[in-house]
Amino acid sequence: MLDEIINCRKCNMCNNQLPLLDKVDECDVMWVGLSAKEVKNVMEDTPLSASTKSGGLISEIETEVKKCKYYKTNVVKCLPLDRGGKLRYPTRKEMDLCITNLFREIEILKPKIIFLLGKNVIKAFENNIQMEFDDFNDYNYKMYQFGNMRVIPIHHPSYISVYKVKSKENYIEAVKNLITFAL
Question: Uracil-DNA glycosylase-like domain: which residues (predicted)?
């Protein structure tokens, strides 16, 4: 289904690691992170896996809202490395090249809800759909209509796990309520 993304060669990041994709072929909820992490085998691992802080928090939410099918992805599917071989943030140009793959995933999977995880993902999405999302305060997130889907910009889960640990339950509850309300 997503062979065109697996075979993407728009930039040279595929030389660092092939695109990391989820193995699900339908979903109600799509989680969109920024970029891939380094994995041993892209065919066996998934984006935002439970072994990471972000993925662990997402897994907690998924466990509590079981009636949904979930798909995890990133704006940048391959591994952005600096000259020294260390993980780095992707550039705006890399995000702009890669985001067409995200829109292809959305087109194929047709999720009902798309969660944009963090400011970099939100900005990349805004830049490519000529739309601006309001800033959010605390855990008062707003839904936006995007075709037949609802797009919801939220805090990145790793931000919550590192800087807002004491209010993690508020975050989980807010996101759970959004999923329940939107479906």
Answer: 24-175
d(CA 152, CA 150): 6
Integer Cα distance of 128 and 165 in angstroms? 32
Q: Identify the helix (H) or strand (E) that includes residue 122.
A: helix 119-129
> For the whole model, what pTM was predicted?
0.92
Domains and their CATH numbers in the chain = 10-182 (3.40.470.10)
C-alpha distances in Å from residue 30, one per residue of 68, 83, 88: 10, 32, 24
Q: Which residues contact 89 (CB under 8 A, 6 or more apart)?
A: 34, 35, 80, 120
Distances (CA, A) of 176 to 1, 34, 38, 50, 138: 29, 21, 29, 17, 15
SS3 (DSSP) at 75: strand
CB-based contacts of 92, cutoff 8 Å, min separation 6 = 124, 127
130-172 tens-digit pLDDT:
889 999 888 999 999 999 999 999 999 999 999 999 999 999 9
